[in-house]
Amino acid sequence: MTDIEALRQFLQVYNIDDAEYTDEQLGLLISQAGTLIGDEYTEGTTHEDYIRRWEGTTYMTDFYPVDVDSVCVVVDDEEVQPHKITEEGLIYFENHIQGEFVCTYTQAINTATLDKAISGLVMYMIRDMNDGNLKSINEGDISITYNTDSDMSTHSQISNLIQNIRSKYKARVRLI
To answer: In whole angstroms, what is the distance from residue 149 CA to residue 147 CA?
Structure first.
């Protein structure tokens, strides 16, 4: 997940003064942003696919995207090294393999994509805390205060990024 120094550099690119925030405060904002995205997306989920009799040179995991470094394939109680693994859960082997097949992996979003979303959310939360340009309208006993910043494009981009992250988490359906 996003570290505090990387977040400070990100905020400086957007001319946001990070000096008034301690590392603990920024860490709390990072944690809140991760919660908004969803723990299941920020931490990943471990799965184990088991096929009693498998045969082939290419395997598709039941869930994706896959953290390619987490993949472990065991065929007939022997670990097998795949030739290539993609984030979409495609595992390629150099040779034809057959036997009792067990594939353990973590379903997780690409770290760079996740960091971008978390940093963007933190930036938006900081801008929102600073209230931007507040205006008030008073009519008799009623007062309405609103933010006149028209920077909804940032909010829309972040919302779209979060939706994109959530939509990437998928499972494949297999017919038995």
So the answer is: 6
Please give the single-letter amino acid code of residue 89.
Answer: G
Q: Is the dihedral of CA 88, 94, 100, 105 positive or negative?
A: negative
List pLDDT tens digits, range 54-101: 999 999 999 989 998 999 999 999 999 999 999 999 999 999 999 999
CA 83 to chain CA centroid, nearest Å: 26
AA letter at 155: H
CB 96 within 8 A of CB 57: yes
Residue type, 20: E
For the segment 27-55, what is each residue's pLDDT rounded down to a tens digit? 888 888 888 887 777 788 899 999 999 99
Q: Token pair of 135, please? A: 């205006």
> What residue ranges do the domains of the chain occupy?
4-42+109-169, 45-107
Q: What is the DSSP string of 137-162?
A: EEETTEEEEEE----HHHHHHHHHHH
112, 126, 118, 111: which is closest to 25 by C-alpha?
126
Query: Which residue in 65, 64, 60 sits closest to 73, CA to CA?
Result: 60
Task: Say whether pTM exceeds 0.85.
Answer: no
